[in-house]
Amino acid sequence: MLYVDDNINIVYNIHILGEVGVFDIKTLEMIEGDLPAKGQSLVREWAEKHEDDLLKIWNTQEFRKLPPLK
């Protein structure tokens, strides 16, 4: 889920096996959550691969599913 936080950062939520991470879309840093380092690394890899899609979704507000983490 994409949303704007209180600091006007575009962020997205990731839910993996009951753990949650909130990531800044530009820096790819986890700003909230309890994902372990391996999970954070996988999310960053996924976000880098889908960066254009994430920004397009945000800019157009045309929400759609992206391929899951593998």
TrEMBL record:
Protein's UniProt name: DUF4160 domain-containing protein
> Which InterPro entries does this UniProt record tie to the protein?
DUF4160 (IPR025427)
Entry-linked Pfam families: DUF4160
Q: Which organism is it from?
A: Schaedlerella arabinosiphila
